[in-house]
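Can anyone check this?
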Amino acid sequence: MSKKDKNIEVEIAEAVKDGKQVQQVLIGKNIVGEVKNSDGKFTAILTDGEEFNVHSFDEGIEVLLQQYHLHQG
């Protein structure tokens, strides 16, 4: 038996943190993490403070979602 796919709504909201603009990734009302751009270098930051250096904004979103789904359960 296969499971039905669930549709999950992912939202990206802009916010200002420590005087710098960041993009927060939300699933429902839960903040998954944020992606920060500093001088062309992107960092994906989880809510627990763990940071990942990534090459692009899209890769940052992918990393946050992968980590979110990995630790849910």
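Reply from J.R.: I decoded it. Residues 57-71 form the longest helix (15 residues).
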